[in-house]
Write a structure and sequence with these properties.
Blueprint: H1 3-29
């Protein structure tokens, strides 16, 4: 493989894995609360 191909492969790998890492960090800081119990079809607790 040429030097340019290796550089492009490294850039692509960093973009994919970097995006995954940033997504995980974002979800840990601001977790998705999920649906409200009424929306999920769960009857309210008594």
């Amino acid at each position: 493989m040429s030097g340019g191909a290796i550089a492009m492969m490294i850039i692509a790998i960093l973009i994919v894995w970097g995006g995954l890492a940033l997504s995980i960090i974002q979800l840990r800081r601001h977790p998705d609360p999920g649906p409200e119990p009424e929306e999920a079809g769960v009857p309210p607790a008594e």
